[in-house]
Amino acid sequence: MPVNIPPFQFSNIVFDGFHDAISKGYVSFEQAEVSLQIFRGQACNFPFVVIDPTIGLDIFRRKRPFLLLSILTFAAQSNLALQQKLETELKESLSRRLIVEGEKSLDLLQGLLVYLNWYHFHFDPARQQLYPLLQMANSVALELGLDRPVRQQLPINLASLVPELLIKSRLPIEEVEGRRALLGCYCLSSSMCFTMRKPNNLPHSAYISACGELLAGIGAAESDALLPICVHLQRLQEDINQSFRYNRADQQGELDSEKIETLCIKFEQQIEQSRSAFPPEIWNNAKVVSSYHAIKIYAREIGFHAQPPSAFSVPTPGSGPPWYISPARHNSLLGCLEATTEYLDHLLSLSTSNILGFTTPDLLRLLYAVLVLGRFSNGVDAPLLDANLLRTVANLRYYLESLAAKFRDVLATIHNPSEHYLVYLRRLVEDSKRWYTPALPGPPTFREDLFSPDPMQMTQKALPTGQDNCLDVPGGLAGRPDFVSAWDKPAASSDPSDLFIKWGDTGTG
Questions:
Q1: Which residues contact 15 (CB under 8 A, 6 or more apart)?
Q2: Which of 108-117, 165-174, 422-431 has the lowest mean pLDDT?
Q3: Best label site of 1, 17, 120, 270, fewest CB within 10 Å?
Q4: Which ranges carry the Xylanolytic transcriptional activator regulatory domain (predicted)?
Q5: Do 355 and 434 belong to one domain?
Q6: Please, which residues have CB within 8 angstroms of residue 98's CB and are 6 or more apart in sequence?
Q7: 444-492 pLDDT, tens per residue?
Q8: Which residue range is the domain that position 185 belongs to?
Q9: CB atoms within 10 A of CB 384
Q10: Structural domain includes residue 430
């Protein structure tokens, strides 16, 4: 007859046969249980890894040790010293199991996705590995065969999902988790890679969409309803990136004005159709709304990608105006400015809990929007638009000060805010005003609506053609407690996302 002997404890160390953060005394059993509860509350922000509330801590330690370690690391955000210790443990475990031992498992993949989704907790410009880790997660998913159906495709028609238990019996829990992880890889990597202007090794496929629809139809978890929405938005962003070649700006060449205008109309229609097609309750999810507004900016960013025609160029008979001076381009710029202010207004309206629930994709979207607004404030080379009026409408000073105040108010609700990453994000926003000092003459006295008039009715005064200023990654980007604000003036660029290009290249690990 077996006898259950309690584990022998000495100080914080637990001798129970495991070699994890609990047995090493980093966290207690009670802290680990609380960490799991905290993570379960993040399902609306991260529906790609779901924890069954009926699974106990002991099962996690035996069956999902790396996922557990990643969750413990995420939940330790209020204790920087502990979080750094756990992250070191996580990286050592990942290196040993994945690199040295060549392990490929769902446990590793799920833990890696959790780590990447909150990577901003650990961001260090000198040693960050965000892009390589994204591609590593995709590679694990592909080697596990998660991108391929393991059996004949199940029906995704909601009417065919009755009785529900019958369908659930055909889809084991491991397969449900694997499909969620595949969707997590796609949504995380596509979102962050496109923002950083990096190639993504996991493109959209019909199977990815089918997985999202199937999981939402089964409804094994309430958050599964978000999966097809997330996939749809990321597929739309992927289509925009492929059409406008944002991540291959050096290969854009001379843009065809008529083709770009057709694509702009197409994407505007798809964005509007998405808004009407999503269930009404989806719009209560702050993450979905933020993603939607950010994609509107992304679709209209093409207006920045234009070069003055050569003085020696000869127009083709019957062709329209070059993209640089076309009304479609100026409409795109006006729409981009409108979408950017809409996004920032939405973000400023978020609750404290929504701000504290930010993920790494959320922060990348925020920084992207600020960069775009900064481009308008520094002056846009658009002959049919008034640069001073654009600068006034962009209202950069207002948004930078409002963001700093928003983060300050959120930090006031935290018990020990000095080590929270929002301290450094607030400092980043405040110091950004130094970069834009020439573009910030003073508080604006009014807000004008530039979004209704036809660009051809705007001032015909041509703006001087020259280099466009854009944010670039400073050497001391805020992200760690030892951050020192000593930034250079932004480098010249026509792409609002050059910051992310360098961020993706920063550090070799």
A1: 7, 8, 9, 23
A2: 165-174
A3: 1
A4: 62-204
A5: yes
A6: 104, 108, 136, 140
A7: 433 333 333 333 333 333 222 333 333 333 333 333 333 333 233 344 4
A8: 149-246
A9: 21
A10: yes
**Residue 58 gets which letter from DSSP?**
H
- C-alpha distances (whole Å) from 267 to each of 238, 336, 505 are 11, 13, 30
Question: Is 487 a domain residue?
Answer: no
Question: Are 172 and 88 in the same domain?
Answer: no
Interval 335-347 mean pLDDT: 97
The single-letter code of the amino acid at 302 is I
Sort 116 into a burial class: Cβ within 10 Å, 0-12 / 13-18 / 19+: buried
- Tell me the average pLDDT across 359-378: 94
pLDDT in tens, 25-80: 999 999 999 999 999 999 999 999 999 888 889 999 999 999 999 999 999 998 99
**Residue 447: which residues within 8 A CB-CB, separation 6 or more?**
392, 393, 395
Q: Are 179 and 215 in contact (CB under 8 A)?
A: yes
One domain, residues 415 and 442 = yes
Calculate ∠ Cα 351-356-362, nearest 5°: 95
